[in-house]
Amino acid sequence: MSDRDSNSFVWFLAGLGLGALVGVLYAPRSGNETREALRQRAEEGRDYVRNRAREARDQASEWADRGREVLGQQKEQFRAAYEAGRQAYQEHTAETGTSKNL
């Protein structure tokens, strides 16, 4: 870890500790109320993360389905182009009298 990164991390930890100290000193509620509020916020956060994860999973599934659809279309276009080329080759060889099987 570089000096800059470790220095930034130390300042982050110092700010975190100072914020916790100020929060405890100026807390407008009792310990039980604060714990209940924290528990409620944690549950709200957990629900938010679950919802976002579900939305992300749905979006990824949608993208995967769309990708499969596009891939299928590309496959069909390639198959049609191959068959058209093969047909043109067979017609050309029939006209000229040369034959090679593909």
From TrEMBL:
It holds the Pfam family YtxH. The chain crosses the membrane at residues 6-27. Keywords: Membrane, Transmembrane, Transmembrane helix. PANTHER family: GENERAL STRESS PROTEIN. This is YtxH domain-containing protein. It comes from Candidatus Sulfotelmatobacter kueseliae.
